[in-house]
Amino acid sequence: MKITLRTDVLTNNNKAAEFNRELFQNTKTLVINLMSSPGAGKTTLLEETVRELSGKYRIAVIEGDLATERDADRIRAMGAKAVQINTHGGCHLDARMVAATLTEFDLDEIDLLFIENVGNLVCPSGYDLGQHHKVAVLSVPEGNDKIPKYPQMFMRTELVLLNKIDLLPYLDFSVEEARKDLTEINPESILFSLSARTQEGMHEWFSWIEGAYLQCVQQ
Amino acid sequence: MHEMSLMGDILQLIQEDATDKGIQQIDKVELIVGEISNAMPDALRMAFDIFRDQNLHLFTETAELVLHIEEAKAKCVLCELEYRPDQKIALCPSCLVPSGKVLSGETFQILSYEGRN
């Protein structure tokens, strides 16, 4: 006997993502899912973001890594609450892992929640976590070929943060080419050039967060 | 990558449905895999074989996996051309502007399974 299901394979993930989304909306918590390769500078970017915005917003971070508490420790040192998820070899965070971790937060007391995904340009893009926004971090030393090589990541993110632009004078990276490649994959996506280390360009990212927060609380 | 865990989820969903319907043995699983769905057909086949060889209850030793590959297609909103996108997914090959919207290729579904009571 043949049984037709036509069930989305990620159906359990999507249910958990909807559960998270409703919770984030009810508690007016802006949630950003940050994705990149390993070493693109997500944690440094978050350290600087917490440093800049913690006077104005109550910030929390979920750190996804295969192993160690190192990233969560770095964020805690900046004064924000951070919870580490260790995936023990898993290549991405899924919505169920995030839902389980949310019990450690009082979302009514949090304005901004950043989810730092596992460093990987492939798998994380396929998993809805219930976030408001998916943001990709790309760094200058990775080279221009990352955008065309990983189109499925960049077609699903609305904002790309090009990090480590302080290294542009030393490397063959073209910001113009990156913009063109990004537009050809996802014309709605925007790109900010910045350096979390030198602070250059960071104000654009901070303003974007403020705009996204206003939109979140007004919904 | 994560095809093992995806296949684990797929087989779990099917076993739950089969148990509800009183089905004792499953002989065939059919999936729809989009070309830009992030799931790799060969890795899915390998994962299926590994699970089947572990003699999971309900799945027979000769259980078969059939993959229907859904082509990636995009359509230009300006000239209405339908095209098969390369890595520049939004770039219309005729207009040469990023005016394409993805029509298909992102599906990743359990289409059906075949079982016996």
Summarize this, please?
The complex is a heterodimer of chains A (about 220) and B (about 120). With about 220 residues, chain A is an alpha/beta fold. Chain A is built from eight helices and eight strands, in the order βαβαβαβαββααβαβα.
Keywords:
heterodimer; A: 219 residues; alpha/beta; Rossmann fold; 7-stranded parallel sheet; 8 helices; 8 strands; 36% helix; 22% strand; B: 117 residues; alpha+beta; hypothetical protein PF0899 fold; 3-stranded mixed sheet; 3-stranded antiparallel sheet; 2 helices
What this model shows, in words?
Chain B: Belongs to the HypA/HybF family. Chain B: Keywords: Metal-binding, Nickel, Zinc. Chain B: Zn(2+) binds at residues 76, 79, 92, 95. Chain A is of the alpha/beta class. Helices cover 36% and strands 22% of the residues of chain A. Chain A has helices spanning 11-26, 42-53, 70-77, 95-101, 146-149, 151-154, 175-185, 202-218; strands at residues 2-8, 30-36, 59-65, 81-86, 112-116, 133-139, 159-163, 190-193. A 7-stranded parallel β-sheet of chain A has the order 4-3-5-2-6-7-8, sandwiched between helices. Chain A is globular. The mean pLDDT of chain A is 96. Chain B has 117 residues and is α+β, with helices and mostly antiparallel strands. Chain B has a domain at 3-71 and 105-116: hypothetical protein PF0899 fold, CATH 3.30.2320.80. The longest helix of chain B is centred in the N-terminal third of the chain and has 18 residues, at 3-20. Chain A binds chain B through residues 1-12, 90-92, 122-123, 125-126, 148-149, 151-152, 155, 181, 183-187, and chain B through 1-2, 5-6, 9-10, 13-14, 17-18, 21, 23, 31, 36-39, 87-91, 98-99, 102, 108-117.
